[in-house]
């Protein structure tokens, strides 16, 4: 069977599944300008709330997955489809704000052009990486679940600030911007996080004292086992 190319200029995207992940990706794609809202679609069978969420930012909502597939050039599944021409992608919820960490793997019958199109689509909502499918369990644990760990860290930092006397709004602002700034430094400088950590810690200072307390609480991970 001949493999037909998909136009990168006029393709439409359908989501099988209307949960939080599909919503995050759709919002990110629309916000980035990659696709207008009406070139995205999903199916909602009975959940009025999910229908209203997608319709609120212009996504077409059908009553069946069959309609979504019929109208779409690219179909994004929440689980691996039982076909060969697929590109598996593990995104994460920061796609909603254009900062996803997504990983993709080509199916056996998927073409390089398919991969390029998917990379362009998900690249509009963050960064795209490639990996063998056998790595996806680890990818899921790191970047798929990772935002929850970061949210927990931000909450803990803010709680510490509040405990020290800061107003809650200021504490959350400082905590979230500190995490964003740290991540940006790692990404843009290419330096190992340990090197950047050492740049902040001075002998006998408050930072190394805090790091020591975190290490005592099994903050870091060494060779797959917590200290």
TrEMBL record:
Binding residues annotated for NADP(+), in chain numbering: 16-21
Pfam families per the UniProt record, alphabetical: F420_oxidored, P5CR_dimer
Residue ranges of every copy of the Pyrroline-5-carboxylate reductase dimerisation domain listed in the record: 133-218
A molecular function GO annotation: pyrroline-5-carboxylate reductase activity
InterPro entries named among the record's database cross-references: 6-PGluconate_DH-like_C_sf, NAD(P)-bd_dom_sf, P5C_Rdtase_cat_N, P5CR-like_CS, P5CR_dimer, Pyrroline-COOH_reductase
Signal peptide: none
Record domain Pyrroline-5-carboxylate reductase catalytic N-terminal: where: 13-83
Keyword NADP in record: yes
Keyword tags: NADP, Oxidoreductase
Transmembrane region(s): none
Annotated GO biological process: L-proline biosynthetic process
Family: Belongs to the pyrroline-5-carboxylate reductase family.
PANTHER family per the UniProt record, alphabetical: PYRROLINE-5-CARBOXYLATE REDUCTASE, PYRROLINE-5-CARBOXYLATE REDUCTASE 3
Protein name: BnaC03g63470D protein
């Amino acid at each position: 069977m001949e493999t037909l190319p998909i136009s990168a200029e006029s393709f439409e995207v359908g989501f099988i599944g209307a949960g939080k992940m599909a919503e995050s990706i759709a919002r990110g794609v629309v916000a980035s300008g990659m696709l207008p809202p009406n070139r995205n679609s999903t199916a909602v069978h009975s959940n009025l709330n999910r229908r209203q969420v997608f319709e609120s930012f212009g996504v077409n909502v059908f009553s069946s997955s069959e309609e979504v597939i019929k109208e779409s050039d690219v179909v994004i599944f929440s689980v691996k489809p039982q076909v060969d021409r697929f590109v598996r992608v593990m995104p994460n919820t920061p796609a909603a704000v254009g900062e996803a960490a997504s990983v993709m793997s080509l199916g056996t019958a998927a073409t390089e052009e398919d991969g390029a199109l998917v990379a362009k689509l998900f690249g509009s909502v963050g960064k795209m990486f490639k990996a063998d499918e056998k790595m996806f369990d680890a990818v899921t644990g790191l970047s798929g679940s990772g935002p929850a760990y970061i949210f927990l860290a931000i909450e803990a930092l803010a709680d510490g600030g509040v405990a020290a006397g800061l107003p809650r709004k200021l504490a959350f602002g400082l905590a979230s911007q500190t995490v964003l700034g740290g991540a940006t430094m790692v990404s843009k400088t290419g330096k190992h996080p340990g090197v950047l950590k050492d740049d902040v810690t001075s002998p006998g200072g408050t930072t190394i004292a805090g790091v020591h307390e975190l290490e005592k609480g099994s903050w870091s991970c060494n060779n797959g086992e917590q200290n």
